[in-house]
Amino acid sequence: MTGKTIKCRSCAGNMDLTEGVNKIFCLYCGTQNFLTDVLEIPEVDLTCHLTPGIDYRTPIRISGMERDVLNKIPPCNLEAEQAALGSMIIEPDTIPVAAEILRSEDFYIEGHQIIFKAIVSLYERGELSDIITINSELKKLGKLEEIGGKGYLTTLINTVPTAANIEHYAKIVAENSFLREIIKTGIKIIDLGYREDSNVEEVIDSAESTIFQLSQRQRVQGFVHLSSLMRENFRTVERIYHNKFHITVITSGFAELDRITAGFQPGELIILAGRHGMGKTSLALNIAQFVAVNEKLPVAIFSLGMSKEQIARRLICSQAMVDAQKFRTGYLNSDDLSKLTPAMSELSEAQIYIDDTPGISIIEIKAKARRIKIRKDIQLIIIDYLQLISSTKSATSFKQVEEILRGLKFIAQELSIPVICLSQLSHALESRTDKRPQLSDLIWAGKIEQIADMVAFIYRDDYYNPKSDRNGIAEIIISKQSNGPIGTVELLYLKNYTKFVSKDKYDGSS
Predict the structure, then answer these.
(1) String of b and e for 104-117 (b: at least 16 CB within 10 Å)?
(2) Among candidates 102, 69, 74, 93, which has minimal Cα distance to 172?
């Protein structure tokens, strides 16, 4: 190693290393550098060998710009780090200001991370924080010499004439830290691309997930004046007063259903199941309408079974209370037209986003969900329906089902929103006298019951018996709920309008 030159991690000044030396102080800025801190990029044979023993080598060409990027010192600002710490030492009142913006790992210099932790620790314990107490704290932790001794604390104080600009210094440090995180993310993505066993879709999914988590860190906001929140929160306050639901809960619009579920919680996977024609899609779209039109919250719909045009027609008929068959065939009267105009106006202003990609995979759903969350901040996802989602794994059906269900649950947790996924039922229940669905009637019952937070079924007696005395009554059967009771709620199903309504609120008029 004799005569080898490396760059200082702080100021990028050249330093010569000699055999047996494992640390060195930079002559330019005084930073202590350890060999473990030095990132060396080894010479790598970037070739592709097609067949062992035969040299089919195609070198991957790296441009001069790319080599320059690889050899650069990560973004950092030594002066801003010193100024931020110096401000915190000379003026303790700046400590909470800095602590709100910075984390210890935002400092590039390890010694600065140690000093920041010591200052914040003293502040949190309610103890005096000055050069004497910080020096004592570092000595107690056995870290004083590691940061350069008391003399370096004095140096920090001398770097700033006043602590008035602490917020500015802290933001510079935080911004450089974020840029380094972007670089680390890029390196992780590069590493994924070089793995021989990589699946392209899985690599894209992992890369987008990493970038999404990074983007969420930048969305953290500070204080805003209360007056700017009054108007937009009036509706929320009114809802909490009347319905007694927590502010983060997504309500369905059906009071009787919300009473038993307490609303849909962030991170929940809800399975809504029923036989074909029971009204699964109608109920899901009614919930989407209420959330988007009444609550003014963005909703995303993945429709694998219907086109976006069909979904739009259902939404229009339900909102306008116009017969869906008349709408499809064009036999509309003037009264229908008078209802359609305001309904279409309301829906055009609602933030409902529809993707009707057929046979979409769970990885594609995750990727699109992240993007729409970043762009539109969606608060609810509806997927119609589970059995049409394709898997990227060439594995057994059991493994594919597990991948899909765990992927849906991951979306709910990662985006911190409820996900409602529709599901078909097996034909087995048709052989029973009582055809009310049970958990065992689910296709993929075991995995759904294990992973889903809530499982609800739709049952209508008039589906099997047109002369039933319960004509138009739909039972919403909550058969599993991880965070609440199970039970049954009754709604009215107005089939002509593809609309569910609460029994106590419907007066029979259209």
Answers:
(1) bebbbbbbbbbbbb
(2) 102
Q: Please tell me the total number of residues recorded for the chain in this structure.
A: 510
CA 319 to chain centre: 30
463 with 277: CB under 8 angstroms? yes
Non-local (6+) Cβ contacts of 485 within 8 A are 260, 478
- DSSP annotation of 409: H
Q: Which helix (H) or strand (E) holds 269?
A: strand 269-273
* Tokens, residue 180: 């380094």
For residues 143 and 112, is the Cβ–Cβ distance under 8 A? no
| pLDDT tens string 370-383 | 888 888 889 999 99
Q: What is the mean pLDDT of the chain?
A: 79
CA nearest neighbour of 481 among 282, 257, 292, 289: 257
CB atoms within 10 A of CB 67: 11
Cα 486–Cα 490–Cα 495 angle in degrees, nearest 5: 130
Q: What one-character-per-residue DSSP string does 147-202 give? A: GT-HHHHHHHHHT-S-STTHHHHHHHHHHHHHHHHHHHHHHHHHHHHH-TT--HHH
Strands (E), 45-122: none
Question: Beta 473-481 vs 487-494: how paired, if at all?
Answer: antiparallel
How far is CA 135 from its chain centroid? 42
**Cβ atoms of 420 and 461 closer than 8 Å:** no
Question: Using CA atoms, how far apart are residues 392 and 90, in angstroms rounded to an integer?
Answer: 58
- Grouping H, G, I as helix, E, B as strand and the rest as coil, residue 136 is helix
Q: Among candidates 503, 500, 7, which has minimal Cα distance to 289?
A: 500
Strand 473-481: give its sheet, edge to edge. 352-355, 299-303, 380-384, 419-423, 269-273, 454-460, 473-481, 487-494, 499-502
Rounded CA separation 380/114 (Å): 42
Whole-model pTM: value is: 0.60
Q: Comparing C-alpha atoms, which of 417, 386, 415 is closest to residue 403? A: 386
* Cα(319)–Cα(461) distance, integer angstroms: 25
Q: What's phi and psi for 410, nearest 5 deg? A: -65, -40
Q: Are 322 and 332 in contact (CB under 8 A)?
A: yes
Which residues in the chain come in under a pLDDT of 50? 1-3, 18-22, 27-28, 35-63, 65, 220-221
Over its C-alpha atoms, the chain yields an Rg (Å, rounded) of: 31
Span 295-339, pLDDT tens digits: 899 999 999 988 889 999 899 888 888 888 888 877 888 888 888
